[in-house]
Amino acid sequence: MSVMFSDFKISHEIIKSLIEMGFEEPTPIQQMAIPPALQGRDLIGQAQTGTGKTAAFGIPVIERLQPGKLPSALVLAPTRELAIQIAEELNRIGRRKKVLSLPIYGGQSIERQIRALRKGVNIVVGTPGRIIDHINRKTLKLTNIRTLVLDEADEMLNMGFIDDIEWIINSLPEERQTMLFSATMPEPILKIARKYMISPERISVDAKKIVVSSIRQVFYEVREEDKINALSRIIDVEDPSLALVFCHTKKEVDDVAGKLQQMGYYAGAIHGDYSQVRRERIMEKFRKGDIDILVATDVAARGLDVSGVTHVINYSIPQNPDSYIHRIGRTGRAGKSGIAITFVTPREYRNLRLIERTARTRILRAELPSKEDVVKIRQQEIIEEIEYVLHNREFVERVSFIEGLSGEFSLKEIAAAALQVAFSYAGVEEIEDISHKMFATSEYTRLFLSIGRRDNVTPSDIVRSIVRVAGIDNRKIGNISILDKFSFVEVSSDVADLVIQNVKGTVINGKKIFVDRARERNI
After folding, report:
1. Under CATH, what is the fold of the domain 444-517?
2. pTM of the full predicted structure?
3. Which of 76, 137, 430, 438 gets the highest tally of CB atoms within 10 A of its CB?
4. Which pLDDT score is estimated for 398?
5. CATH number attached to the domain at 5-205
């Protein structure tokens, strides 16, 4: 028998708000978190984005609010976007109880925030830096705080907020409930839990079950120079309602979004260099569907919570498995289906396999849609548009053009010529055949180099030296790991001996280096 919200000891007002919000039954994380949280117990919840974490802690927080003008709950979030989204959802959940949740973050007028705090709020949701600013100004009073929530704790760790979090915790009353939610549980986060939480209830939603059950995961073998064409081909064939495209760098985000726009797609971009106003405007367009493709960096997309995202596309493969989990969690929300697509270049196969092992999932290889597939889809779209115009008789004003041509050409010839023009404008004839450029999986050999961080060496130094001395294509070089005294570099196995023979004894950054095959390791 399924569990319902009415099975929990929560007020009629909140149940009514949840019904109005479209909540039908609690998600697994809500089923596990709400009962102990309502009892005031400390809680550690491990679940990825999109599993219903906000309501999981939000419902108990609202039920346990203390009366008065001072806030009785504090929620810490890694980004301004997430702080805004959490505050909005808490306000919706607590609407019938007249609960007021206030987002506090950098980039917004601090004077406006001070005025709102003076009027009185029930819950403060904020980023660590701005919360500390208000505490130091004595504009945020903590004496009435009875509940602390750390949301997306691993992201706050990645962004360097761990010391700020501890500072804030030490400023709070000792008698309080603490709830911590995180997609992953690195040691520094567990250390925070051990230090500041009292016999916490530990709950976890199996990331493997969530990922595998609700998200179809595939990867495509694509050379770097073919990625934009591959992306456009996938968009044409998959026809996503809303798609998130992830890139590593801000420049790449701008380049990819710009090229998509030039190709006629409704695409937008967000990254850290954009002003808050611009980012919020783009996000609002994405939520409304005015743009259906959003290109972003990991940092800009942290905390992004948009319902209806059907596709997550890793234009650049995530740099670590945790990032992969966070990215693909933007689709397949609350049991709905979603698709995660990853582009993989030859040197990135080891990254892909590491992601699979760590995330305990299987990412299936898929064949890139052929040129013929895309041509058929675009032609079908044009035919459907023509049928629509014919059924709605939107062609009447154009009949005179046909009459002018019919003296010299047959109606079939005119129609075929019109289709040719339509196909040309739709780019059907310009679709590049990149199937011949697909490659076979490359095997890599890991080499040891006797030069490291203390020698001021960079990956670029190593790549330039190997390419110059061994005379190989830089695409034959894979991952590079630079440690303090030495480095590891992956090279295509077919050139490993050549690299060892030619690079051994050469000088990089003024140091004569030794090169050999690295000893086997478990990764």
Report:
1. Alpha-Beta Plaits (3.30.70)
2. 0.52
3. 76
4. 76
5. 3.40.50.300
